[in-house]
Amino acid sequence: MLMPRVHPTPVFDAIKAAGPTRADAVMRISTIARLMDSAVTIPGTNRTVGIDAVLGLVPVVGDLVSAALSSYIIWEARQLGLPAWKIARMVGNVAVDTAIGAVPFVGDLFDVAFKANMRNLRIVVDHLEGTGQMRPQVIDGEAVRLDERRR
């Protein structure tokens, strides 16, 4: 006896319609921004560096690879529906980082100080929180320092 064939298309259509969420996109942007700009803390300081500064040590090619990785954040922001003027600010951040980062030695120091990807992450998060598309990541309640609490 032949069994009727069940076509799984409705299941796949539902999964496709649900797609990745806005939170998934923000997590991807956040991961890349942190990897690029603040992956490692410099021992003995409170400063962080990412692979952007390391890639900047390789003349020309390193800066181009860094700009390409940074462009992914801009692409994700466009997919999230950020307005053109915010996208332009993000492009400006990457352009400044790439242009000054291409200058030998001075550019490497600049890459440590100017964190274009973290700035772009902040633009995306501020937009999503400001338009109500994402809830702020704030804990409600009072903060009390441990050394100041009442006994």
Could you characterize what this model shows?
The chain is an all-alpha fold and 151 residues long. The chain has one domain (20-41, 48-131). 60% of the residues lie in helices and 3% in strands. It is built from 7 helices and 2 strands, in the order ααββααααα. It has helices at 9-18, 22-37, 51-55, 61-79, 84-101, 106-113, 116-130; strands spanning 40-41, 48-49. The protein has a two-stranded antiparallel ribbon with strand order 1-2. The longest helix has 19 residues, at 61-79. This is DUF4112 domain-containing protein. InterPro entries: DUF4112. Pfam families: DUF4112.
Chart the SSEs and their pairings.
Layout lengths: L8 H10 L3 H16 L2 E2 L6 E2 L1 H5 L5 H19 L4 H18 L4 H8 L2 H15 L21
Antiparallel strand pairs: 1-2
Number of strands: 2
* Strand arrangement, major sheet: 1-2
Sheet with the most strands, sense and barrel status: 2 strands, antiparallel
Number of helices: 7
Described by the principal axes of the CA atoms, the overall outline is globular
What is the count of distinct domains? 1
Classification by helices and strands = mainly alpha
Instruction: Tell me the series of helices and strands, N- to C-terminal.
Output: HHEEHHHHH
In the predicted model, the low-confidence regions spanning at least 5 consecutive residues are: none
| Beta-strand proportion | under 5%
Helix content: 55-70%
Rounded to the nearest angstrom, the radius of gyration is: 21 Å
End-to-end distance: 78 Å
Chain-averaged pLDDT: 84
